[in-house]
Write a structure and sequence with these properties.
The structure holds two protein chains of two kinds. By secondary structure, chain A is α/β, with parallel strands linked by helices. Chain A contains seven helices and 15 strands. Chain A folds into two domains: about 1-220, Rossmann fold (3-Layer(aba) Sandwich), CATH 3.40.50.620; about 235-265. Chain A has helices at about 40-50, 65-75, 95-105, 130-135, 190-200, 215-220, 245-260; strands at about 1-5, 10, 15-20, 25, 30-35, 55-60, 80-85, 115, 140-150, 155-160, 165-170, 175-180, 205, 225-230, 240. Chain A has a nine-stranded mixed β-sheet with strand order 11-10-9-12-8-1-6-7-13, with helices on both faces. In chain A, a hairpin with a 3-residue loop joins strand 9 and strand 10. Chain B has helices at about 20-35, 50-60, 80-90, 105-115, 230-240, 245-250, 280-290, 315-335; strands at about 5-10, 40-45, 65-70, 95-100, 120-125, 125-130, 135-140, 145-150, 160-165, 180-185, 195-200, 215-220, 240-245, 270-275, 295-300, 310-315. Chain B is globular and about 65 Å long. Classes of the chains: A alpha/beta, B alpha/beta. The interface between A and B is large, with 84 and 97 residues. Strand 11 (about 165-170) of chain A pairs antiparallel with strand 11 (about 195-200) of chain B.
């Protein structure tokens, strides 16, 4: 079973700072990590390989330093990695990101499955996975919480939806986007880390994958960011402190008044 | 030239009834359509919906309802829905399409936007029309809610967005509103038969559907052990609320993953969010900070959750919650 896992390198979200004057994100000094939600995709690919044999190729589009994220995936257990990088990709929105990744995947076929995380924690869109499925006309299951069975022709999965779950049978090759429930990501192994240090990671530019240059990067992106700004994060709320029986009763009474005032309860 | 419409993608449940989130989309769309002075339409794909269901969309703000009826459309299968939507869009050329940022909308819309060679903005919390250009301005949180971004699709059409559920009030029901229900014939060749839907099943736990809950009562590590989650359940039942949880609570196996709120769980936008024993790690805040009212109960005065709270009590939740429940019940009885 040949599995491709597209991943993204993201800034560690808890450390993101914004320049209040310019409204831009300060990336200096921020640690970059594999998108945490991609770890579930890598782990489910490793488990599938353990049970069915085959190989895992992790791919990423990003600046040259995104190679680190690919090496981390190798350390976890992926077999090989390919990076697409170059100025021509800068400023890509989800449309042109999905386009470039699809072109690379098309270049390294055949494959049985493409597995992605649900979304990246920086952009938060969740659009690239379904976008790749659309470009490559692959049957798609999003929000996949469990892989029930897989054989050479098809895969049966459980998809997490608002009301519970649904079961889908997809012919292969197919694309799954997976959620946290699917697996618990393993830590890198010693052997994996050794491999990660030495493995050669091919670097592809726009010329290496069959793409139209005008569809790449900012100029190929249908959407434009008009501006970014910092949302109001603090609210001037009432905060009460319980010290004894009396303040406990008072606090609860005031909470109930708040609930009434905001029409959260009616009586 | 014909005025290019604003479209909303309705969702239906397993009983082939319109889901309430569809009315929220109409409330958003109504505002946009009015500013642009164009008709507002609702698109419905389903199997033998009752006419009253379709009419409800008109009462809630639609001028037109495009209605595609087929047995194969009883369930959402992205390949079918995307093919049919492409077909409709080519025929009718809407300028804006909005769908809900649900598991359906966030699957269908990216699939569709690729096929239409156009832009899509995910999970918007506000939509506006740019005065000078008439373009759609899409406002959404990114980077775990640390920034807000305003995005537009300047050159391509249609302009597409998914909109976060519960981010707008539905319009009052108006039975005097008139509109047109337009049945659209389905060409069978648009059905993609590769994927087989093998059925639904409900989660074992109650009240998992957090995205449609008006009130969410959420518990964190401060609950100390699994058994104490009953405090949250009892309070949630009393308030008719959904049950949320922080990542720690899910990782410890106290409650299942569908309840998890935050960066690696659900993003919710209820009217009221009660955070109980939740310290407010940035990853958790990312999933709930847009709630209209945030109430926090935590023993640590330094907990970050208080910074974004409208109302907070610093104290022992094991004293506060039982007393709150008791007082709420008394008030209910005496009213």
């Amino acid at each position: 079973m040949k599995i491709i896992v597209p991943i993204k390198q993201v800034p560690e979200t808890s450390r993101v700072k914004i320049n209040e004057e310019t409204g831009t994100i300060i990336r200096d000094g921020v640690e970059n990590i594999i998108n945490p939600l991609d770890l579930y995709a890598i782990e489910s690919a490793i488990q599938l390989r353990e049970n069915n044999g085959g190989s895992i190729t992790v791919i990423s589009m990003g600046p040259p330093k995104a190679e680190t994220a690919l090496r981390e995936a190798i350390a976890m257990g992926a077999d090989q990695a390919i990076l697409i990088t170059g100025r021509e990709f800068a400023g890509s929105d989800t449309w042109s990101t999905a386009y470039a990744l699809s072109a690379l995947i098309e270049n390294i076929k055949p494959y049985d499955l493409v597995i992605t995380g649900e979304r990246a924690t920086d952009g938060d869109t969740g659009q690239v996975g379904p976008g790749i499925a659309s470009f490559l006309n692959l049957p798609l299951s999003t929000y996949t919480g469990k892989i029930e069975t897989v054989n050479k022709d098809h895969i049966i999965v459980q998809r997490l939806i608002e009301e519970g779950y649904e079961r889908l049978q997809l012919p292969l090759p197919a694309l799954l986007t997976v959620v946290k429930e699917i697996a618990y990501p393993r830590l890198p192994t010693l052997r994996g880390k050794q491999k990660a240090r030495t493995i050669d990671i091919p670097i592809n530019s726009g010329k290496d994958i069959k793409v139209k240059e005008e569809e790449l990067g900012l100029k190929g992106s249908p959407t434009r960011v008009v501006r970014i700004y910092r949302p109001q994060v603090t609210r001037k709320g009432t905060i009460l402190q319980v010290k004894d029986e009396k303040t406990l009763a008072e606090s609860v009474d005031k909470l109930i008044s708040f609930l009434k005032e905001k029409k959260i309860v009616s009586f | 030239m014909k005025k290019k419409e604003v479209w909303t993608v309705s969702e239906i449940n397993q009983q082939q009834e319109i889901k309430p989130v569809s009315f929220e989309l109409l409330a958003r769309g109504r505002k946009l359509a009015q500013e642009l002075e164009v008709p507002l339409s609702a698109i419905v794909l389903g199997d033998s919906l009752a006419e009253r269901e379709l009419k409800e969309l008109i009462y809630r703000g639609a001028d037109k309802v495009y209605w595609v009826n087929h047995k194969a459309l009883a369930r959402f299968v992205v390949e079918n829905h995307s093919n049919i939507m492409q077909h409709l869009i080519k025929n009718y050329q809407p300028q804006i399409i909005i769908a809900a940022a649900t598991t359906q909308g966030r699957t269908l819309m990216p699939h569709l936007s690729i096929r239409l060679d156009t832009g899509l903005t995910a999970d918007c919390t506000d939509l506006q029309i740019e005065k000078e250009t008439g373009l759609l301005l899409q406002i959404r949180p990114a980077i775990g809610g640390n920034i807000m971004a305003m995005i537009k699709t300047p050159e391509r059409k249609p302009q597409m967005s998914t909109v976060r559920p519960k981010s707008i009030q539905v319009l009052p029901r108006d039975e005097t509103r008139e509109g047109k229900i337009i049945p659209v014939d389905l060409d069978d060749s648009l059905l993609d038969r590769r994927v087989t839907h093998l059925g639904y099943y409900k989660s074992e736990e109650e009240e998992v559907n957090l995205s449609s809950a008006d009130i969410i009562v959420a518990g964190g590590r401060g609950l100390k052990k699994k058994e104490n989650l009953s405090l949250i359940r009892d309070l949630a039942r009393g308030l008719d609320a959904g049950i949320g949880a922080s990542r720690e609570v899910v990782d410890r196996g106290w409650i299942s993953y569908p309840h998890q709120v935050g960066l690696s769980g659900k993003t919710v936008n209820p009217k009221t969010y009660l955070a109980i024993g939740i310290s407010g790690a940035i990853q958790h805040l990312a999933g709930m900070k847009t709630a209209k009212n945030i109430i926090a109960i935590n023993s640590d005065p330094q907990a970050d959750i208080f910074k974004i709270s409208d109302f907070g009590i610093i104290g022992d939740l094991f004293e506060i919650i039982p007393l709150l429940k008791k007082k709420l019940e008394e008030k209910k009885l005496s009213s």
